From TrEMBL:
Source superkingdom: Bacteria
Pfam families, sorted: OrfB_IS605 (PF01385)
Protein name: Putative transposase
Organism annotation: Leptotrichia wadei
Domain Probable transposase IS891/IS1136/IS1341 intervals: 39-109
Amino acid sequence: MILPKLKKVKLKYHREIPKDYRIKSVTLTNSNGNYYVSILTEFEKEIQKIPSNDKVIGLDFSMSELFISSENQRADYPRYFRMLEKKLKKLQKSLSRKVKFSKNWYKQKIENIKIA
């Protein structure tokens, strides 16, 4: 892949970009010492009209649940952050005890980033 400011960059992709797609933008990100490229593409497609349905539902935001519908249905979603909160607390405490900018501090920091 050739990027304007970086010249040639090796690329390992998992899906072929079809010929009729047009590349709109490329985003390069660094996460935990690994670089990732995100490619935004555009293509033309005719949109099929879906027959309208007059049934309406109302959704209200809730702090304890994600939402409550007008038919009194509640969203039961897993609270991943709450489940990992104790583990994150333990990891942060471990990080604070390490010598700052040491090799073990960097390892612990990467582990914290993966959890949070």
